[in-house]
Design a protein that fits this description.
The protein is of the alpha+beta class. It has three helices and 16 strands. A hairpin with an 8-residue loop joins strand 8 and strand 9. The longest helix is centred in the C-terminal third of the chain and has 27 residues.
């Protein structure tokens, strides 16, 4: 019984998160966006797996080239991954098992994302020395940026938020403790924001660069693995499952070779029955497996895996 408890807990948490998402969508429907909000939509650049948008409490699957309007919720499944781009060239990447609202506050388009659960990577474009202020909000943190690249992760169990900065400067405030002083994060800095604790004065900078390398390799491995699996499943003839005789050539397989005559000499190393022992096959490792192995090693080295 105890073996299934973590699985049931995760499933319950996912259902509660989706329920909260549906409730948020219903509430947002009562405050329609401004008439010019269409120019602030996000476009799907790349995607794989299950990526959906919530419209009127119904999930609709997205495709490459699809658009997500303001106040709409993006939901990714266990294999879902997508990259979106907004009108100013900024992009955000959504990873598996994530729920977020795109520009929830339609009357302030600088509020880019409300992340409820999961992980995103955001890249805010800036033009020369002109800042491009944007905000990302979570249940526990308010993240303000002017042109930077950073990761945000919200834990599904306690809504703890982790912010990791790759490039630029990020200001982090506590969403539930307004009196708490904000923290400025630079390249390589990270901080964890707890629901009922003020921001820690000590930044979590141990192995941040290695974590970025580890996360990048892990993400590349996961995406490559998902695309490879879909490519194999999607190959072959169309219109039905692939099976015996589905090659389209219609030719019968060649007959097996005849057995050796009695008393036939075999090479050294064969068995006494006169059958030649098969040579051991070389092991082939996929690129995804090699990348995952490297990521695991780097994660152990950084103390995060």
């Amino acid at each position: 019984m105890s073996v299934f408890m973590p699985v049931r807990r995760r499933a319950l948490t996912a259902k509660l998160s989706l329920l909260i998402a549906v409730t948020a969508a219903v509430c947002l429907a009562q405050f329609p966006p401004p008439s010019d909000s269409g120019q602030y939509a996000a476009k799907v650049l790349t995607m794989t797996g299950q990526v959906s948008v919530l419209k009127d409490t119904i999930l609709y699957g997205l495709l490459e080239g699809s658009t997500v309007e303001v106040q709409q919720m993006i939901v990714t499944g266990p294999d879902g991954h997508a990259t979106f781009q907004v009108s100013d060239g900024s992009t955000f990447e959504v990873f598996p098992n994530s729920h977020l609202v795109f520009r929830k506050n339609a009357w302030n388009v600088k509020d880019l994302i409300d992340l409820l659960v999961g992980r995103i990577r955001v890249h805010i474009e800036h033009f020369g020395n002109v800042p491009n202020p944007n905000r990302v909000l979570t249940p526990t943190a308010v993240i303000s940026v002017r042109g930077t690249t950073f990761d945000v992760t919200v834990d599904e169990n306690d809504e703890t938020t982790v912010i990791e900065v790759e490039d630029g400067l990020v200001e982090v405030r506590h969403a539930l403790l307004p009196s708490d002083r904000p923290k400025m994060l630079g390249p390589g800095d990270s901080v964890k924001v707890y629901k009922s604790q003020p921001l820690d004065a000590r930044l979590l900078d141990k192995g941040t660069i290695l974590r970025y390398v580890f996360n990048a390799i892990r993400d590349a491995a996961n995406v490559a693995s998902m695309r490879s699996t879909r490519g194999v499943l999607g190959s072959g003839s169309t219109g039905g499952p692939i099976g015996v005789g589905d090659t389209g050539k219609g030719s019968a397989p060649p007959p097996p070779p005849p057995p050796p005559p009695p008393g036939h000499l075999v090479d050294a190393g064969s068995s006494d029955t006169g059958v030649i022992a098969p040579e051991p096959r070389a092991k082939h490792h996929s690129v995804g497996a090699a990348i995952r192995g490297t990521a695991k090693w780097l994660g152990r080295f950084a103390g995060i895996y």
